Amino acid sequence: MIGPRLAAVCLLLTACGSAVAVATPTPHCRPAPSLALPSAAAAPVSATADQAQVDPGTTVTFTEIAAGPAMVQVDCAQPLQLIVTDDTGLSVYSGYSPAAPASACGEVTLGGAIETYQVTWPVDSSIPGGTYTATLVLGDAPELTLSLAVGTLPDEC
């Protein structure tokens, strides 16, 4: 037998149309993280990107610095090469920096001096969001890789 109070609650719910509000689950997402600027180093070179996360249709600038004491063989016409790949290893962009001045190419001997090279990646506006790897090649110096986020990452609000 149902107690009088429980019966009254049941009648009240029935009288109100038995509508019970069900909370709609909010989509699982997280705020965009504050990413540190990408950087890498392997003597005698170091590299950075001017942004950690970019939107499609914008441009990222990579800077590579060669510092001595060291000697580096650098191509004069296309000193700094950039190869960008997606998270599956597929190449999505490749490019070169502008020609280097005579003092920054050929056989470059870096006593206590430094030489700076820059190359840009104009991120295609149709590129899907995700993590991309930029590989920088400066002559016979060690290759450097930087990771960048493009667009909104999965589960990001």
Oligomer: single chain
In the residues, how many domains can be counted? 1
Characterize the main sheet: 5 strands, mixed
Class in CATH?
Answer: Mainly Beta
How far apart, in Å, are the first and last alpha carbons? 51 Å
Report strand %: 35-45%
Rg calc: 28 Å
CATH topology: Immunoglobulin-like
Q: What do you see in this structure?
A:
The protein is mostly beta strands and about 160 residues long. It has a single domain (about 30-150), classed as Macroglobulin (MG2) domain (Immunoglobulin-like, Sandwich). Helix content is about 10%, strand content about 45%. The strands form three sheets. It has a five-stranded mixed beta sheet with strand order 3-11-10-6-7, with no helix packed on it. A four-stranded antiparallel beta sheet has the order 1-2-4-9, with no helix packed on it. Strands 5-8 form a two-stranded antiparallel ribbon.
